[in-house]
Amino acid sequence: MKKTTVLLLAGGLTAVTACKSSQTESTATGMNTETTTTAPVAASETQLNYPKTKKVDHADDYFGTKVADPYRWLETHNEEVDQWVEAQNKVTFNYLDGIEFRDQIKERLTKIWNYPKYGAPFKKGGKYYFYKNDGLQNQSVLYVQNTLESEPKVFLDPNKFSTDGTVALTALSFDKDAKYVAYGTSSGGSDWNTYEIMEVATGKKLDDKVEWVKFSGPSWHKDGFFYSRYDAPTEGNKLANKNEYHKVYYHKIGTPQSQDKLIYEDKTKPLRNFYGQTTDDERFLILNVSEGASGANALYYRDLKDPKSTIKPIIDNFESEYDVVDNVGDKLLVRTNKNATRYRLVLIDPKKPQEQNWKVIVPQNENVMGNVSLVGGRIIASYMKDAASEVVVYDTNGKQLNKVELPAIGTVGGFGGEKDDKETFFTFTSFTYPPTIYRYDVPNNKVTLFRKTEVDVDTEAYETKQVFYTSKDGTKVPMFIVHKKGLELNGNNPTYLYAYGGFNISLTPSFSIANMLWLENGGVYAMPNLRGGGEYGEDWHKAGMTPNKQNVFDDFIAAAEYLIANKYTSSEKLAVGGGSNGGLLVGAFMTQRPELAKVAVPAVGVMDMLRFHKFTIGWAWVPEYGSSDDEAQFKNLYTFSPLHNIKEGVKYPATLVKTADHDDRVVPAHSFKFISELQEKGAPGNPYLIRIDVRAGHGAGKPTSLVIQEWADTWAFLYKNMGVNPYAKKQP
């Protein structure tokens, strides 16, 4: 399949994880690596003067239930809201500025973040391309080299897109002959993209500009490319307006966007998204059609060899997932979970698409099939076994040839390329294994180290274990736990519990420089694989979807209880975190079990479960969550919606809500309304703060400088409210 590098997940929520980077032992800077407890934060320190947030007399009637919405005005974007943001940030940053060791954390993070970070090479037009960040560059730079041994040259530097690093590269696609490259950019973290075209040989940028692209990627055919967009939004509310009527267009090089040809639209289905890609040989245009972000999709195609052909359905329902790997002649190789909850690989004739005509190439097995590529005449399939990677190689008839040798238990990514490539590259990582790039000789099944990441951290000082704990209903749930070797299980270790639990997204072991700072100061990092994710296939996913969403929260609560019962930590030393759908998770956790953790950090979270579908792409999450427009689903949502379950006079964990003013995936109004309710109703004793990034979005493309500052603030907030100074001198 002609793959477009799209750095934004189309159609739904993404897991917001720590940026991947690396670290050093504190002794190198003379810092004490032991965690030293200090006196708990005095209550008087947390009696903050929060901004007075206006309330309006507004209520909605849901099937006879009146639900007040006094902060409805925060859903709009105007000067009054901007003033409220400024006032909230002033209180928050005054608090953070007052944490005596926060600058030390930032200094330490900056030092250990500053190492070269490489992406795996990929080949186009006989040349090799790769991304590299020298260490602290706001955006990674794309380099090109003639051979793997020749001197790399800068091909595209996103740091030159803006002075502050807030314009990011979001998509990249070369035409078949590698004469042109189309690339996408977004500003301030928005999901809105602009596409431009560059001549590969000269680096000359053409006049072409394609705007208002969202949830798409440029996919080439002949002298132009297919892409998807919405109509230009109303000015003034472009970051909140509901996204409807996705359309597929074809842009021809050298013509204005106004002349782009409309390829497909459905005027009867405003909430359908159409994501187009061409096969490697440009024979077929494939449209992935979605009505929500929970995975299931329809599949349409057009035979581009026939100029008179039209777009026709292969699969015209939303019962299962279908991912076209590539074509094999006039048939399509498709990864699907149709009658195979852990996925299988089948060959489908688009002219005879009925299931009885499918040819099974690789049947379902006990592990979950993930990414599949067709490279060097081989099928390379990645699998998950208890959330860790395995890679199996098959011939094109589905006969297993071998497994790819991996260095440890962890996560693998890559194996991209074209059908006739004899080599491919992959990256391997784990919690304490920095991303390492390997070259894979496909015909000879030979793995060689290509590039090792050098970090200033003693990664051998830590250990990772996987445990299986029991959730409320008896379900066994896996959890990774990472900490220093020889950790004393005394119930007093600062612990950060992070999870996601939704949208069929799997959390697998990966290296995070931000987490290494936490670990090197004696902290514990715990990551459970909750229901709602994809770690065990579609059954695991559905067990955490509406009406079963409470299972996800129960799994997270049970993870916290396990860590406390097994003396890793205590409620006074436990912090919970998560982003996006994981922000909802944290919001539900803290409103259902406020006594169980000391600190909560919900980031870019879906907090208003009754109105999420009213904004931008929120409607796409209805299959995952349900909708307040349905009476039974409303009742379910109302039971766990974080905004609507904050109780008067309850002491909630010290809370640092994180969001951004340009987030048009989960609009910041979710966080604005949640913190307003929390500040009004929460009992005193813990701070309830919101940190609002300006000129940033849901997470993708955020400049390194902002990421480092955000993590410095986050860890400082956790330590402060746990009564821990990580850099205090150890008492004799």
From TrEMBL:
The keyword Transferase does not apply. PROSITE patterns: PRO_ENDOPEP_SER (PS00708), PROKAR_LIPOPROTEIN (PS51257). Residues 1-18 form the signal peptide. Keywords: Hydrolase, Protease, Serine protease, Signal. Its EC number is 3.4.21.26. It catalyses: Hydrolysis of Pro-|-Xaa >> Ala-|-Xaa in oligopeptides. InterPro entries: AB_hydrolase_fold, Pept_S9_AS, Pept_S9A_N, Peptidase_S9_cat, Peptidase_S9A, Prolyl_oligopep/macrocyclase. Residues 51-452 form the Peptidase S9A N-terminal domain. Residues 509-723 form the Peptidase S9 prolyl oligopeptidase catalytic domain. Belongs to the peptidase S9A family. PANTHER family: PROLYL ENDOPEPTIDASE. This is prolyl oligopeptidase. It comes from Pontibacter aquaedesilientis.
